[in-house]
Amino acid sequence: MANTPYPESYYAASANAVPPRPALQDAIETDVCVIGAGYTGLSSALFLLENGFKVTVLEAAKVGFGASGRNGGQIVNSYSRDIDVIERTVGPKQAQLLGQMAFEGGRIIRERVARYNIQCDLKDGGVFAAMTAKQMGHLESQKRLWERFGHTQLELMDQRRIRDVVACDQYVGGMLDMSGGHIHPLNLALGEAAAVESLGGTIYEQSPAVRIERGANPVVHTPQGKVRAKFIIVAGNAYLGNLVPELAAKSMPCGTQVITTEPLGEELAKTLLPQDYCVEDCNYLLDYYRLSGDKRLIFGGGVVYGARDPANIEAIIRPKLLKAFPQLKDVKIDYAWTGNFLLTLSRLPQVGRLGDNIYYSQGCSGHGVTYTHLAGKVLAEALRGQAERFDAFADLPHYPFPGGQMLRTPFAALGAWYYGLRDKFGY
C-alpha cells in the first residue's frame, strides 16, 4: 500500500522525531475504535484511556496529517459562531451549557501539555485586532458576552495600546485574551499521540477506514485489516470522504493557506510582536499570524471553497503579509502550504450518534484547535453514559448546503465574495 507522507510545511520540517507506526494488518478487537489521529481523535482517545477503555486509533496517513498538523497554531476561544448567536438559535438553557464549555478547550490543551510534557512551543496571549470602529464595537460586546460566562482574562486595547503588542498600523484597537495563545500544532498532535501510547492505546498509521460494518458490534475495515469494537468515534473531519454518507451533505471541506518566512532573528521578531502574542484580525475572511519558536513569521489567511489546492499560495498570502508588515518586503518565504478544514452551513460543529454505538464530531468551521480538544472530552463523557454536554451539541440544528454537494461550493464562494466586499468597505 502507498505510504502517504506529510505534505511539505514548516511544521513537518520542524516536527519532533517520532517512531514510524505500523499499518493495521490483522483482525483485532477493542472497546473503542477511533477513526482519525487528529486532535478530535487523539483527545477522545486520551480521555477514554484515562477512564479505563481499551482504544485503537486508525489513521489514513500520519498522526496530525490533516488540519491538526497544518493550521495556524492559534488557541482561540469559543466557536466559529459566538454564544450570542447560539443563544438566539437554541434558547438560553442550551446556550448556557455551550457557553460554559466555550473556554474549556484551551484549558485542556494546557493541561495535556503540562501532564505529558509535550514540547510544542506553547505561548500565552492572543490578540483580536479591529480594523474599523464597527469591529471595535463588536469586540466590546464580545468582552461583555464572554465575561457573562465567567471568562475574565480579557483586556480591551485602544489604538496606542495595540501598537505596544503588534507593529502594524492597520488597527484601530483590539482585545487581548491571555487565555488564548499559540502552539506548534503538529508537535502538539505528536505529543498527544505519544501520550495515547503511554497509556496503552494503539495507533495504526497508513490505515484508512474504507468501510464501516454497522451493527451491535460494529467493524471498521481497512485495506489490510479490520477492527471490531463496542463503539466507534468518527473523527476524520475534512478528510473523511464518503465513509459516512449521512455526514457528507451537511459539510464542505475548505482550504486555508499559510506561509512561513525565513528566520527573522531575535531583534526583528521582537519589533513585530514584542510580547510574542498571536494575532487575528476581525474581518469575515480574516488574516492571522504569529512567531514560531525559531522566530519566523507564520502568516495565514484566505479560504478556498471546495478545498482545491491553489497553484501559488505565496502569491495569495504574501501581499497580505506585506500590507500588515511592509518592513518585511525583502524577507524570503521558506514554506507555503494549504490545509483543509470542514465548514458547516451554521458554522457550528456537528456532533451526534448514528445508531447506538457510532459517535462523531466534525465541522469546527475554522475554530478547531480548542473545540476539538473539548469534543474529545464530551465524546468520552457520552460513551461513559454522561450525555448532557454531548446532547447540548447534538441538539444544534444543521442543514444541508443548498443545491447539494454539486452547488455547495459556488454558493459558499458567492457568500465569501459578499463578505469580502463588506470587509473591504468596512461594513
TrEMBL record:
It comes from the Bacteria. The keyword RNA-binding does not apply. One of its GO terms (molecular function) is oxidoreductase activity. Its EC number is 1.4.3.-. It holds the Pfam family DAO. Residues 31-381 form the FAD dependent oxidoreductase domain. GO terms for cellular component: cytoplasm. Keywords: Oxidoreductase. The keyword Oxidoreductase applies. InterPro entries: FAD-dep_OxRdtase, FAD/NAD-bd_sf. PANTHER family: GAMMA-GLUTAMYLPUTRESCINE OXIDOREDUCTASE, SARCOSINE DEHYDROGENASE-RELATED. This is Gamma-glutamylputrescine oxidoreductase. It comes from Pseudomonas fluorescens.
